[in-house]
Input
Amino acid sequence: MNMNIELAAARISRQVPLTEGSIDDALIQVSTLITQLVTARKQTGVSAATGQSTIVRLAKAQNALMTASSDVLRVHKDLAQLAEVHAGFDLHECPKNAITEATVTRLSVAS
Output
């Protein structure tokens, strides 16, 4: 099945924000779970050591999601540049809330 560049670009441009949003959703879920675990530990009066290894694993998963998010944001930028070169799209056609490489770098350093 052959696909022209415009059709491929349209499909990809719809998928990129969905992918970014899915990672954000996963990040929210992991963050919520961490909060619930720590809150439960505190409210039930169990030792601070209880479940600590589980919370640490979740924090590692959270960090991995932040890394994935940064990588997908970089891919978004790369795809926008490819669209400009191969499909004649203007880079300014990306949503106004698109994140710049400088922001991605700051987010990566902060995590």
Q: What stands out?
A: The chain has a mean pLDDT of 84.
